[in-house]
């Protein structure tokens, strides 16, 4: 995995765009965005504690979609919850952040 770029959202949440295609052929190049919000709840099955950062990965079909997500989250023009459909298999994680992020 290679980190393409890193930033912080306006609320201080860490964000980075990643390229997993060199490790896994089923990923398009530079098509993953990972955010590290602070949990507002406990999730025992994912070992996430209230008040601590956790990783939430958003997988897109291509680099263009990932760029759009990364840019809009970095600029504060969208929320993580706007991208719930791209958090494959991790819908439960979106419940940990509420709607404000």
What descriptive keywords fit this protein?
single chain, alpha+beta, 2 helices
Layout: helices, strands, pairs:
Elements (H helix, E strand, L loop, with lengths): L1 E7 L5 E6 L12 E5 L19 E4 L3 H13 L15 H4 L7
Antiparallel strand pairs: 1-2, 2-3, 3-4
Task: Using the alpha-carbon principal axes, give the shape.
Answer: globular
Radius of gyration, in angstroms, nearest whole number = 13 Å
Q: Indicate the structural class.
A: alpha+beta
Spatial sequence of strands, sheet with the most strands: 1-2-3-4
Q: What is the count of helical runs?
A: 2
Beta strand count: 4
- Taken as a percent bin, the fraction of beta residues is 15-25%
Biggest sheet character = 4 strands, antiparallel
Q: Kindly report the average pLDDT value.
A: 91
How far from one another are the termini?
A: 26 Å
| Helix-residue proportion | 10-25%
Taken in chain order, the helices and strands follow as EEEEHH
Domain unit count: 1
Low-pLDDT stretches? none
